[in-house]
Design goal:
It is built from 13 helices and 10 strands. The chain is α/β, with parallel strands linked by helices. The strands form 2 sheets. An 8-stranded mixed sheet has the order 1-4-3-2-5-8-6-9, sandwiched between helices.
């Protein structure tokens, strides 16, 4: 069932000069929040009326409350001209945002938590980067150096550990996936939501992972944040669900199912008479750099393998040579292949395991007594054959285009 109690935006928004500005729909998902909802909406509406320069609307999404939250939401929609209320039977913050953002007529969709833990002074900086066209998504971050937070030690540790996992496991550039303070271009976020499967707390993370995977720009705004002791978040259970979600998203990315056709801003020259280089020249330069690194890595692998073979078995020698060569190899890709900021993550590790398995099988298949040179020749030839495949995968899979 999907019921609504709505008051559409005032007609003046369609008549005066404000219609030339981006229109923002701020969603507040609620579940059994009869205590916090009235104060949140009145505070937010007052702030927007006095200090927010863009046309706006507040949308309350009640997703399955069993207390008096829905009655309060409809009353608030009647009290304020620019407050819209909507009720869903499906629970979960992700389900609430998905429903509200898909149906919103606004140019920019945003959301914040009902407890107003994030200081509202960060709202316009958050929306401005999206309204200007500079970024497709903007998020608040509690982990930036200039952010100021007040929360329990347990939540601080869990939050930092979780976001570190995202950085080092997925190579993301954003620092705080779960801050309940985000904005996005409506036309961009809707195709992404078609791929997002989670309807609960992992919705935010999945959306951001898909956004960066598909080359969208995510802008971060440091925020002031104070923890509400009455929060509905169950930290341990949420962390477990998030880990399951990460595994699912990792699989989707590795199988190519995470790709989405989205509109994004592309760099264009500002000067009207600028002479722009051909992309093909960059591709050729990148190919040559890959070829040079590949040749270097094969030679390096062979030189490392030979002395280690005097100390270890063929399988252990192969492992040591691959690890040392791989470290140098990845660093060379970062420095010389137009990747200014790249993080190695689980997909590179999977490629390494495949590489190790194949080269180990090759070296163990060398007949005993064939001689050290034959052994080295076989494993080097196998490694050389895999290098081309590995570099292709690194360019298109491990290091996706941004």
């Amino acid at each position: 069932m999907n019921t609504r109690a709505a008051l559409e935006p005032r007609p003046r928004l369609a008549d005066d000069a404000a219609n030339r500005l981006a229109w923002v729909d701020i969603v507040i998902p609620v579940l059994n929040e009869e205590r916090a909802l009235p104060g949140c909406v009145r505070t937010l509406a007052g702030f927007l009326e006095e200090r927010f320069p863009l046309p706006w609307r507040i949308t309350i999404v009640d997703n399955g409350s069993t207390d008096g939250t829905w009655a309060l939401a409809t009353a608030l929609a009647g009290e304020f001209d620019l407050v819209h209320a909507r009720r869903l039977d499906v629970r979960g913050r992700g389900a609430a945002l998905r429903a509200a953002w898909r149906d919103s007529p606004a140019d920019i969709v945003a959301y914040m938590d009902v407890d107003l833990s994030t200081d509202l002074d960060a709202l316009f900086p958050l929306v401005a980067s999206v309204a200007s066209g500079h970024s497709e998504i903007a998020i608040g971050t509690r982990l930036a150096h200039s952010a100021r937070t007040r929360r329990s030690l347990r939540r601080e540790i869990v939050s930092r550990a979780y976001n570190a996992l995202l950085r080092y496991g997925f190579g993301v550039r954003f620092s705080d996936a779960q801050c309940g303070f985000k904005a996005a271009r409506a036309d961009v976020v809707r195709p992404l939501m078609d791929k997002v499967e989670d309807d609960a707390w992992f919705f935010d993370t999945e959306l951001l992972l898909l956004a960066e995977h598909n080359g969208l720009r995510v802008h971060e705004v440091p925020v002031d944040w104070i923890e509400d002791a009455d929060s509905r978040v169950r930290v341990v259970r949420t962390a477990i669900d998030d880990l399951k979600g990460l595994a699912r998203v990792a699989w989707s990315m590795s199988t190519g199912r995470a790709s989405v056709a989205v509109r994004r801003s592309e760099p264009r020259p500002t000067h009207p008479d600028a002479v722009v280089g051909r992309p093909r020249a960059v591709t050729l330069a990148k190919f040559l750099s890959f070829a040079a690194i590949g040749l270097f890595s094969v030679i390096l692998y062979t030189l490392i393998y030979l002395p280690l073979r005097d100390l270890w078995s063929p399988a252990m020698t192969n492992l040591g040579a691959l690890v040392l060569t791989g470290i140098i190899n990845i660093e060379a890709n970062r420095r010389w292949t137009f990747r200014k900021r790249t993080t190695v993550h689980f997909r590179a590790f999977l490629l390494f395991l495949v590489n190790y398995a194949i080269t180990t099988v090759a070296v163990l298949k060398v007949p005993p007594g064939s001689g050290r040179l034959t052994e080295v020749g076989v494993v080097a030839a196998t490694y050389c054959l895999l290098t081309l495949i590995r570099f292709t995968a690194l360019d298109r899979w491990v290091f996706p285009r941004k």
